[in-house]
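Table 4 source record.
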Amino acid sequence: TVPLIDEKFRYDAIMAVFIISLGSLFGHTFITLKRQEKDEAYRKFLDIGKYSSFLFHDFKGLLTTPIFYADMLQETIKSGKDSSDVIAKLNEDLSFLQEYSKEIMKLTLPDSNAYQQKEILNIDQIEKTLRILFRKPLQNIQLEIDKKENLVQPLNSFKLVKILYNATMNSAENFKTISNKDQKIVITFNKDSILISDNGSGFPPSILKKLNSEDVTVSTKIGGSGIGTAIIKDLVKNMDGKVRFYNNQGAVVEILFN
């Protein structure tokens, strides 16, 4: 009997399949590596854009210092009964602005160790820093700090202050869109979480959906670009925490630490 497929043909067929498979494997590997290189380059490009926008957002706070001083100078001159009262108030204002400039500078241009250090936080010191940062921006808004419990785990104080600063300023921006005489922002410390809440109108449903998604920006029409929120999410993630946005008689930002 004559075999249907002779040995030479069988050998050639096996080699052809082997070479094709090897070529496919090489091609797939090459394409995968090139795609990874492209994705990495794209990620770096996005990171450069993201962190550049974060930096410019931080500089806004730094640039408010001369504006604050001009406002305070105008208020002091108007309210002073005589020259000695005006001079005393100006000295007080300058003392505050020195403290404010120092804290906003640390927040905007931190030293090289600021991102690395971890410690059991002194909530009293955090409160002191926040009150300096918010004394002028929140002058018509009541800031309440509720220290129910101290945070029990070591955290980076620089990152935490920056998170609280951006979350609180977001609430302050939202107050500009509503007429509420008794405006209040409350920062509540628990042993494993922090809540930043206000008695405003809360997050609009469409914005709330984006806040709890992976979107970097939120809106250019309601309360700004959303870069402050992106900073919050980036820093919380960097601290191995979780952030949640929801409404409960106003807007609430909940930060959970593992």
